[in-house]
Each structure stands twice: as C-alpha cells, then as structure tokens.
Amino acid sequence: MAVRHYTLDFNLSTAVECASVVPGLLSIFHEQELAETIHDTNGHGYLATFVGKNGRLVILRVHSHGLVTIDLQCYEEDNAAQLDNLLNSLEKKLKVILNGNIARTKKLPPLVRGAEVDRYWPTADGRLVEYDIDKVVYEEDSPYQNIKILHSKQYGNILVLDGDVNLAESDYAYTQAITGNGKENYAGKEVLILGGGDGGILAELVKHKPKMITMVEISFMVIDGCKTHMRKTCGNILDTLRGDCYQIFIEDCVPLLKKYVREGRTFDYVINDLTAIPISTSPEEDSTWEFLRLILDLSIRVLHPKGKYFTQGNSANLTEALSLYEEQLGKLSCPVDFHKQVVCVPSYLEQWVFYTAWKK
Amino acid sequence: MAVRHYTLDFNLSTAVECASVVPGLLSIFHEQELAETIHDTNGHGYLATFVGKNGRLVILRVHSHGLVTIDLQCYEEDNAAQLDNLLNSLEKKLKVILNGNIARTKKLPPLVRGAEVDRYWPTADGRLVEYDIDKVVYEEDSPYQNIKILHSKQYGNILVLDGDVNLAESDYAYTQAITGNGKENYAGKEVLILGGGDGGILAELVKHKPKMITMVEISFMVIDGCKTHMRKTCGNILDTLRGDCYQIFIEDCVPLLKKYVREGRTFDYVINDLTAIPISTSPEEDSTWEFLRLILDLSIRVLHPKGKYFTQGNSANLTEALSLYEEQLGKLSCPVDFHKQVVCVPSYLEQWVFYTAWKK
C-alpha cells in the first residue's frame, strides 16, 4: 500500500508573521478532525503537524523568510476527492489570508511512495522524473546486474539495468544514432557489437545484408528478457543466437577482443553498446576509467584502418564525465579522431551524446 | 530561500513491529540533536517528527503494512555533506536492523521547494518532472497569458505559456512535424499560420520560398520575448513583422478567419500552432471544445480543396482528449480525413500527437 505525498507551496512577496497566517487555517484542520502538534523550531518559523484518523498527516510550515509549505501524506486508497477538497480549501483560504502577497503557488503532482510499481527513475544528470510505468513485465537478478523490463504506455516496454533506463521500444533514435544515422553502408561488411543485448542494433543491421555481425553480450538473461518483452526493438532476431549473417556470443567481450587482437582480426564497424560510462569521477573509480580505456583501446585495435567505431557517451549535461571520456580517447595506443552528436532518445527524458571515432 | 526535501523509503518484504525498527534509529537522531515528538496515529503505525536547530525537520514513519518512509526537510544553504551523512547513516542502520527484509530502497533526488527558479513543470499527462532550468530569462504577464522564457542547459531557452512548456530551442522536431516532416513543397504556396509566436514555423517555411505566409499571433509580447530569447528557433525572422514573403498580424485569428471565409480566400496550407487543446473534458468546458471546433471549422473553410491542415494535438497519453478532438474533426461543416503521428519533442518529456487533415 503506497503513500501519496502532496506538496503545496506558496512563495510570498514579503515575509509574514505566522500569527497572521495560522489561525485562519486551523478551522480547516479542525473540520478534518486532525490532531494538532505545534513544534518549537528554535526561531525557524512556525511548524505544526496534524495527524488524522486514517493515517493522514499534514505538515504546515510558515518559514520566516516568506515561504509557506504544506505537506499532505495519505494512503493510496484514501478518498482522493476529499483530499483534493482539503488541498483546495487550504489553497483558497491562504489566498484570502495572504491577499496579494503570493508571488507563486505551486502544487505538484503527488509523489507516490512505496508503490508496488515504481515510476521514478531519475535521469543520469540527477533530475527527478516520473514515468508513466504501469507494470513490471520482467524482473530478474543476473550475476551481473538487476534486470527489469517495465511497461510504459507511451514508450512501450523499457529495459532498466541496475536502475538505469537503457532502452525502450520507442527508442529507434538510439539505434539510429549508434549505427551512424542511416548514412553508413553495412552491405558486405564485418561488424562487431559489444553488448547490445536488447537486440535493437542487431535487428537494424541485419536488414543491410552485412557479411557477418558478431555480437558479444555477457548476459544471456538480458537477451532472454528482451527477446520476449522487447519485440518492437529486436523483432525475432534474438530467437536464435546464430543466423545467416550474425552470431551472438554469450561472454565477456574483453578476452574475445584480446584474442581478435592476437589474431590480427579487424572489423569495418565496431559498435560499443555496453552500459553507460561511469558518472562518478572520484579517485577510487580510476580503475573504471582504466577499464573503459582498455575496452576502447582493444576496440580501436580491432578496427579496420578505414573502419568506424560508434558508441553512446552520456547525458549531455554531464560535461565533466564527457570530458573525461574524451580524454581517454586521446590516450589510446592508436591515435583516433572523433566527433560527437547530441540525440533525443525518447525514453531518456534527457539529451544524450553519441560518439563516432576512427583511426587517424 | 528554498527548502530541500529528501525522501528515503524502504519497502519491506514482511511487515515489522515498529518496536524492532525505531530504537536502533533513535541514537542517530539524538546525535544530530533533533528534538523528538512521537505522535498518536490511531493505529496507523509509528510516526515521529524530529526538529533540528537549523530548521531541519525529519519525519519517520513505520507503516504497519511494511513500508518505512523518511522525510528530511532542510534549508537550501544547509550543509549538504552533513545531510548526506545523516541519510546514509539512516539507510545503513536500517539495512542492518531490517537485515534481509528490505525489498526495495528508494532515495529520490530531493524536491526543491520554493526556489527562486522553479524547475518543476509537470507534463500534460500529469507526471512530475524536473527540468535542468537554471535561469528565468524573461517573464511578463500579457492580457492573454503568463509568458516565461526559461533557460535549460540541455534544451536551450524554453517558452512556457501559463505554465505549459510550449517550445524549446532544441525542439526543431516540433517545427518539422507541424510543417509536414519536410515532405511538403511550400515553394510558391499560400500559407496561413495561426499563432506561432515563437517564430519557429515561420523561420522554417520562409526558407522554402512560399508565395506568402500570413501569420496571425494574438500576443505581441510573445513575439517580443521570443525574438530576443529564442533566436535558435526564430533566427531574425521576428525582427520585422513583414518580409519578402511573409506578414505577421498581431490580432485574434477568429475575426480574420471569418473575413477570409467571407472573401472566399483560400490557402494551400493552414498550420494551427495555437496553444494545446484543453485536457479537461468536464461539462463546464464544453464551450472550449466548441471554440476549438469553430477555429477548426473556419480553418478548413479557408483551406484550398487540395490543401493541407497541420496542427499539434496533445500528449499521446491523453487518449480521451485526443478522441474528443477527433470527434470534433468529424463534426465540421466540410468533411475531412485526417491522420496522426506520434513525435518526440525533446523538451516535452512526453510523446506528442500531431494531426494532418485535408478535405475529403
């Protein structure tokens, strides 16, 4: 049973004495049969809490610098019309009491806390966003990560790995960007996909009749979940691990890349669709950047001299992480040039950077 | 001075006695010198509030059905590291106390309440979303609406009319969709734009050398704000109200449309870029739908028999409002066919429906 948490805030043009605000509101709380507690705030304005009989909790704060905040917590199955009435009454009354002194009123959609289906999946740049998720379609823990597939009315099913939105069925823009925006000629080419367990890239590229696509995905469980629940993304391509012009290896890409380097094998395209680069740049994560650079280095080493390397980067807002990534591109054993592109991937709710790199 | 409001929630696998949770946490609150009040909840679990010396407020609830919620409110300039520590201590301690009984831990990015720059602009389908807005670039009240232009790091400047995100500088996808996805030939054509005060459509279409674009925007203040602050959208097209192949009338489009109908004047393209259709379908708003139908009807009457009518619809999730709109399309004095398209407009944070209509 979830808790709905409403907030209703008033920015005032000038600070007010709580004595002028509070008494006028109390009648509303008393009507609701809420038990009142007034707290000592040590000079930080007025604070009262009101507890109702059905688990309702109201918090009223009149901050001394000119902000009134109201919180209303209730159970999900509580009478929504009654609560709307309560909030509307409070809003109306405050508008009368603070006549002309309100610079802004803000009533947000309620936070739903502890719900069976979690709708809040913050962006990579740390913003609070609510998705229209109504169902958990798939959830498993693999040895590598927590795998969820969530249903959204507008985005279709969404693959979420360790809490990060990876790809939704609406996100053909992602597949387009990471395969070169439809400007590449894959016909007869050798392609290597690192990761890509949702099958989106593979399903797109087989249409172009490449010579062979080799995909290396560490997690069979991701493939297994996506082949059932992300069919708008992968079609039937994941139904078998081997087709006319593709083969999927379920293994860690690093040893395989090292083997290809030893064998001198090259690919016309290397597409890195592994999970996002780490956002934290704290010193204890140096090893993550080193790991990323290792994969980058190996990828470029198996790239044909005229080949292209495509990868996703990060949120366009995470400029520090993007700079660090570009720094790694300058430290490879084989020098590369690169360009980047900002793309709107529908389900991400933030702009995303994609990179193309090639040997100098 | 804003309030940061953190939430930290624990879904439990099985309900617990608050007696087993609360004592272990109290030492943390006491360390923080928080004054405790325990509330009578009439059998709805445990509820305690803790007030600190610097305006901090912590609310701890152990709901009897297996949910623990913690709220932490503090002032914006409060010591963020200390607060992180407090939340981390609470999280760690609860993980020890509830050993193995936690099904989900959720710590959301804090809500920032009462801030000078408001970052929360809910979607048309009513979801809570936080934008990366760091500056109010322009704000005025016209006789028609509240006009804001807000700066977002990733979307550029965003035009917000009466609290609705209208268009950001990143949103060329909107302009493309409402002008026919680049598949129309505007050369030598007569075009009528209803609304369009941000100048995006006008700036796009003049490139195609139409015979004449007539744009009718009711609000000069929208044009005035956009011509200064939305230049990635409008370029210099709004610097003058009249150019080689366009003219902008600052007036209500309805009388003008009626005049055009009387004169028998027609256009090859009519592009309705007025603000979104109403979401509410409550009876008292019937008149809004009637008004919408009037505009639709007049627009189709001034449309050349082989012309096309483009308009934005609504959030893809507002299926009821979309159906009602399509119902209006069936009630026009001149029968039309239509199709619709779902488009990702970057700054909307939701999928949006666009319509194309033409005379049967």
Question: pLDDT below 50 for ≥5 consecutive residues: which ranges of chain A?
Answer: 277-285
What is the SS-derived class of chain A?
alpha+beta
Whole-number total of structural domains of chain A = 3
What CATH architecture label of the largest domain in chain A applies? 3-Layer(aba) Sandwich
Largest interface: A-B, 63 and 63 residues
Helix content of chain A: 25-40%
CATH topology of the largest domain in chain A: Rossmann fold
- CATH C-level category of the largest domain in chain A: Alpha Beta
Which oligomeric state applies?
A: homodimer
Q: What share of residues are in beta strands of chain A?
A: 35-45%
Q: If you had to describe this structure to a student in words, what would you say it looks like?
A:
The structure is a homodimer of 360-residue chains. Helices cover 27% and strands 36% of the residues of chain A. Chain A folds into three domains: 3-112, Sirohaem synthase, central domain (Double Stranded RNA Binding Domain), CATH 3.30.160.110; 116-166, Roll (Spermidine Synthase, Chain: A, domain 2); 170-359, Rossmann fold (3-Layer(aba) Sandwich), CATH 3.40.50.150. Mean pLDDT of chain A is 93; it is low at 277-285. Chain A contains nine helices and 19 strands. Chain A is of the alpha+beta class and 360 residues long. In chain A, strand 9 (146-152) and strand 10 form a beta hairpin. The interface between A and B is large, with 63 and 63 residues.
